[in-house]
Design brief:
- It is a single chain.
- Helix 4 packs across helix 10, helix 8 packs antiparallel against helix 10 and helix 9 crosses helix 10.
- The protein has eleven helices and 27 strands.
- The C terminus is likely disordered.
- The protein is globular, with a radius of gyration of 25 Å.
- With 463 residues, it is of the alpha+beta class.
- The protein folds into three domains: 117 residues, Copper Amine Oxidase, Chain A, domain 1; 90 residues; 218 residues, Zn-dependent exopeptidases (Aminopeptidase), CATH 3.40.630.40.
- It has a seven-stranded mixed beta sheet. The chain has a six-stranded mixed beta sheet with strand order 23-22-24-27-25-26, with helices on both faces.
- The chain is 28% helix and 33% strand.
- The structure holds zinc ion.
- Zinc ion binds next to loops.
């Protein structure tokens, strides 16, 4: 007995010396052992305690954990995670040690909270638990002098807003529940909560003009009205059979973008061209979604987040250039790269990145493994550039690469096209006239369709 104890003590000391321990974590199902070394946990094991399905994708070099409708992805060696399609910074980096993704308790907590769970150290040690039943939301319609508002009370969260024709989706990060069923009232015809996504259905022809969070009491407001939707994109079927493309009309809201000779705004031009392009894609059997339906300010991160969320087959951000001397004209197409291909490309990226958050630099250094679509992005960019060259009668300006923030974190082929120069009189005429915008949309739709057709059959079958 004494010898056995000695042996155990030696073994324990040896294990401690290496810092290898199995940490006990309490779960709703009882205590569980999780691999831990040097104060770091095996994050995959911790995430599995929630019931999440955790998998390692060797091709991307990243882990994904899926629990219900929520998903989080993280890559060893980095401090970034993708939470429901959106890039998020982790408190400390994830390290891969002996084939295990190790992270601190703070990082484990950050990943767990993305799934609606928490890791805490209580009197009885470490514990994972589901976050309390969630905030209870109350949805009501309020009318004021400025028009109609849909007010969601009971939350201080700023949900991700997903606009589709005829409805607005509010995607919450922390768990929510409905305090009572949504009652139709005027412009609000109904709605429901599916996991973290609150869908509000709107009367025909009603659009969202803006949305924002307000304090005291905390609530989230969706203002209806705004500019009339002249070219409403037909509502896509809920389950898509064919490909889906997300078009991103650059700028919007207070961010007006570049200005034309008669103060025409880039944000309006990009929206008009995006709508017309979407209509053409829909007519060709491709589901098209816009990152904004009206004159809304949408953060750069939310634009790709929508595309990731919808698992789009392609993402195209639409812009118009200006201020480089009147002689310069024609389209330019970019795809994502950490380094700009030349000084002009760097300047264009800097101009479009002004709305970016301060942690942009970190986001730009996002593991290039996630830009596994680089070749496909290059093909998408070329397909677009070739057709614009033809329309505009110019020699190839060349496909360029630049660190556009709006393209970072896209998990599908993505390109940004500057469809012309507002500072050039000929380009400006086309950009600002309805017929010109239709021409540009025709060319862009054709380019996207050609790109979709060119994809490998295997890639299609895999979807
Ligand atoms: Zn722009």
């Amino acid at each position: 007995m004494r010898r056995l104890l000695t042996l155990l003590a030696v073994l324990a000391i040896a294990l401690l010396a290496r810092g290898v321990l199995a940490e006990t974590i309490l779960t709703p199902q009882g205590p569980a052992e999780v691999f831990s070394r040097g104060g770091q946990f095996d994050l995959a094991e911790v995430l599995r305690l929630t019931g999440a399905e955790v998998q390692f994708a060797a091709a991307a070099g990243s882990y994904s954990a899926v629990l219900g409708q929520r998903e989080v992805q993280f890559t060893p060696g980095g401090t970034l995670a993708v939470v429901d399609g959106r890039l998020t910074a982790l408190p400390t980096p994830v390290r891969l040690v002996d084939g295990r993704p190790l992270g601190t308790a703070a990082t484990a907590e950050a990943l767990l909270s993305a799934l609606g769970w928490t890791l805490r150290q209580g009197a009885r040690g470490w514990e994972v638990a589901a976050l309390g039943g969630g905030e209870r939301l109350q949805v009501s319609v309020v009318r004021d002098a400025g028009g109609t508002l849909i007010v969601v009370r009971g939350t201080a969260q700023e949900p991700r807003v997903i606009l589709t024709p005829g409805q607005v989706g509010l995607l919450f990060a922390a768990p929510v529940a409905l305090a009572e069923p949504i009652r139709p009232d005027g412009e609000l015809t109904g709605g429901e909560l599916n996991g973290p996504l609150l869908t509000l259905r709107l009367k025909d022809g009603v659009a969202v003009s803006s949305s924002y969070a307000l304090p005291d009491p905390p609530r989230y407001v969706v203002r209806l009205g705004g500019e009339a939707q002249a070219a409403v994109v037909p509502l896509a079927p809920a389950r898509r059979a064919g490909p889906l493309v997300v078009l991103d009309p650059g700028h919007g809201g207070e961010d007006q973008g570049a200005k034309g000779p008669a103060s025409e705004l880039e944000k309006s031009i990009t929206l008009a061209v995006a709508r017309a392009t979407a209509a053409r894609l829909q007519a060709a059997g491709v589901t098209a979604r816009l990152t904004r339906e009206g004159d809304d300010g949408v953060s750069l991160g939310n634009r790709t987040a929508l595309a990731n969320q919808l698992q789009a087959d392609a993402f195209v951000s639409i812009h118009a250039n200006a201020y480089r001397g009147k002689a310069v004209r024609g389209a330019e197409t970019y795809y994502m790269s950490v380094d700009a291909s030349d000084a002009d490309a760097a300047a264009a990226a800097a101009a479009e990145n002004v709305d970016a958050a301060p942690d942009t630099v970190q986001l730009i250094l996002w593991d290039m493994a996630h830009v596994a679509n680089l070749n496909a992005s290059a093909r998408l960019a070329r397909s677009i550039q070739e057709r614009f060259n033809e329309l505009q009668g110019i020699k190839d300006r060349g496909i360029r690469q630049a660190p556009f923030v709006v393209l970072t974190g896209a998990t599908m082929p993505a390109a940004l096209v500057e469809i012309g120069f507002l500072s050039n009189p000929a380009d400006a005429r086309r950009l600002t006239s309805a017929t010109g915008q239709e021409e540009l949309a025709g060319v862009l739709a054709e380019a996207v369709l050609a790109f979709l057709r060119s994809r490998e059959p295997a890639a299609e079958a895999g979807r």
